[in-house]
Write a structure and sequence with these properties.
Elements lengths: L14 E9 H10 L5 H19 L9 E7 L13 E7 L7 H22 L1 H16 L1 H13 L7 E6 L7 E2 L2 E2 L16 E7 L2 E9 L6 H32 L2 H57 L4
Parallel strand pairs: 2-4, 4-7
Antiparallel strand pairs: 1-8, 2-3, 5-6, 7-8
Helix pairs in contact: 1-6, 2-3, 2-6, 4-5
């Protein structure tokens, strides 16, 4: 949506920054509770919720959704000539116009999937060419001149902030015997893009670090509290949803069919148990047969002896 926020203005040389720390296992728990979402979706949804609270508190929340720029690696494995990352830009709607945290998360997931499908359809080379065409506009004199016109004419912008997610080391790190407990990610801000979020994971945690200038964000502690509240609300909402989703799986679908099969098996086993008993009875009857034959043979032998005694001797 083409509109501007308080962060889409000229920036000064003074910086403010702060961060919130999320537990990685809790983020993964939210990912498992809401079908289809990723860790990155959770992060974008939390940032969107924080921006919504912050701008709403100042009476400057737009009716439409804010859009974030997200750098992505578009390097194809089949492209053997390329080395390292090939960075493109993906735009993601943050749905700051949605109050419910779970609905916002699902909407963000749809937005990310749509952007990924577009990136896949365009292809690696085209995305790189597009990004190479964008970055000179972002950092060059032409862009600075354009921002002056945009500021003077109150022209809306297609993107309002940046969220850059970088995976960190997933093993413990030490420096001079001291264990690393937290990583923070920093990034640049520029005119008309005065709010940057650096996201990095490591040591079982995820940090969301924001950078702005003190003229655009004179109260960084307030924005930090807004981000923390957005995270707490999403975590609480998904905790209440998780049991409902598990009960739905029991109600029908593949799960119920599988369980119905398991119920039927004990009956089959019970009938199978009756079978051997019947066979054992028949076997026991069969065992009586040889005894009867033995008695018959004994009687026959006794009869032959008696007959032999009655015969006269020659």
């Amino acid at each position: 949506d083409s509109f501007r926020t308080v962060f889409n203005d000229r920036v000064s040389s003074f910086r403010v920054m702060d961060a919130i720390i999320l537990d990685l296992d809790e983020v993964k728990g939210i990912r498992q509770a809401v079908a289809g979402v990723t860790v990155n979706d959770v992060i974008v949804s939390v940032v969107g919720g924080g921006l919504r609270k912050y701008l709403q508190g100042k009476g400057e929340l737009p009716q439409g959704s804010l859009v974030t720029a997200a750098p992505i690696n578009v390097r194809a494995e089949r492209n053997s000539d390329s080395r390292g990352n090939q960075v493109g830009i993906m735009s993601i709607r943050m749905y700051t116009d949605i109050e419910d945290p779970v609905e916002r998360l699902r909407a963000v997931n749809e937005s990310v999937r749509g952007s990924k499908e577009y990136a896949s359809a365009v292809g690696t080379t085209s995305m790189m060419e597009l990004s190479q065409g964008l970055w000179p506009q972002v950092i060059g004199a032409g862009f600075k001149l354009g921002t002056l016109f945009a500021r003077a004419g109150d022209i809306g912008l297609p993107m309002h902030t940046v969220v850059s997610n970088v995976p960190g080391p997933q093993v413990p790190l030490y420096l001079a015997g001291a264990r690393l407990h937290m990583l923070v990610g920093l990034g640049p801000i520029m005119d008309m893009m005065g709010l940057f979020h650096g996201v990095i994971s490591g040591a079982g945690k995820i940090s969301i670090t924001f950078v702005s200038c003190r003229e655009l964000m004179p109260d960084p502690q307030t924005y930090r509290e807004c981000l923390q509240e957005a995270w707490d609300e999403l975590r609480a909402a998904t905790h209440t949803l998780a049991p409902v989703k598990r009960s739905k799986r029991r109600a029908g679908g593949r799960g119920s069919g599988a369980r119905a099969g398991k119920v039927a098996r004990p009956k089959a086993k019970a009938s199978a148990k009756l079978g051997p008993e019947t066979k054992s009875k028949s076997k026991s009857k069969a065992r009586v047969g040889p005894k009867t034959k033995a008695k018959t043979k004994a009687r026959a032998a006794a009869g032959r002896k008696a007959a032999a005694k009655k015969r006269p001797a020659n």
